[in-house]
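anyone seen this seq b4? input:
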Amino acid sequence: MHGVDGWRAVAAATGPADRAAAEAGVRLGYRTAGLPEPERIVWADSPRAALGLLGDSDGPWGTDVRGRSVREAVRSAPWAAERARCHELLGPRGWGRRWALTGGRLWENTERLAGRIRTGLVEEQAGDTAEEAEVRLLLLDAVLGQHDAAWLCAFDTGEGTPLEGLAAVARAAGWWWPYERLAVLCERPVELHRDEAGRLDRGDGPALAFPDGFALYAWRGMPVPADFLAGLDALTPERIRDEENAELRRVMLEHYGYERYLAESGAEPVHRDGTGVLWRTPLPGDEDVVMVEVVNSTPEPDGTSRTYWLRVPPDTRTARQGVAWTFGLDAEVYSPVRET
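predicted toks r here
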C-alpha cells in the first residue's frame, strides 16, 4: 500500500491487527538497526493495556526483564537518516515540496489523534504527579505504528529500504514498544469516528475505542465525559444554563440548536434593520448567545423565503453589524448591491 491515500487508510484502519505481518516487521526493524531480534513479542489490546504491562515493575515484563528501550535505534535513527538523505538529495526547497505533497497532508490529523490518545492515557492512568511522570516516560518509548503514517508517507518504505520494517508494522498494527529483549505490540482500534475536519466526533458513543474498552469520547473534537453524551437527547434550556463547564455548555448548545435555544429560552429581539433581526439571551458565567435572523430575499422554488440564523460576537449591537461581521466587514462598509 503506497501513496498518500494508502497511508491515510493505514492511519484510520480499525479491526484486528495482522499479527504475523506486524511481528515480522518488528524483527526486520531490529535487524535493520543492527540489533538482535527481541526474545519475546507480547500483544496488548490497547495502549492502556500496554502501559499496564510495562508499568508493573514486579510483573513479568519489568525493566530488568525487558531491558532498556531501543526506540532510538529502531525508529528515530533510521527516520533521521532518511530525512537527512532526502534533504541532501532534494535540497531545502525540494524537501519542503515533497513533505507538502506527502506527509504534510496527513500530519495534522494523525498528530491530533495521537495527541488525544496520549492525553486520554495520562488522564486515566495517572492518579498523582509521580504516576503522571511514569506514564509520560513510558509514552516516550512508544513507536506509533499506524499513527506514524504521516512521516512514513514521505519516504520510500519498499523492500530493502531502511524503513521497510517500521512500515510493515504500521500497516499491520497499532502502537508498539521496542526494548532490548521484549517488544510489546498493540491492537488497532475497533472503532474510529471523525467529522469532516478529521476531529474525533460522535454523539452516541465512543469516538475511538479499543478491544479492551479503552475509549475516548468527543464532540467535534472536544473531549467530553462518557456519560455526558447520554444526556444530550434530554436537554432543556434550564439544563444548558445550569451547566457550569462553559465548554460542555457550548457542546450542549450545538447539539440543541441555537435557534431552538433562543426560541425556548425567552430570548427577545434587541434590534431590527433592513438586514434582519438581532436576538440576544444571556448565559450565566459565559458570553451571551447573540444571533442575527435573516430572510433570504431569493424565494425558494415553492415561493417561500428561507430564514437563516447567524451566530455573531456577543458585542454585536445591530443586525447590520452582525451580518457584516460574517463577511469580515465593518457595518459602515457593508452595503451589498443585492442581498441573497
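The chain has two domains: 3-188, 237-326. The mean pLDDT is 90. kinda curious what u guys think
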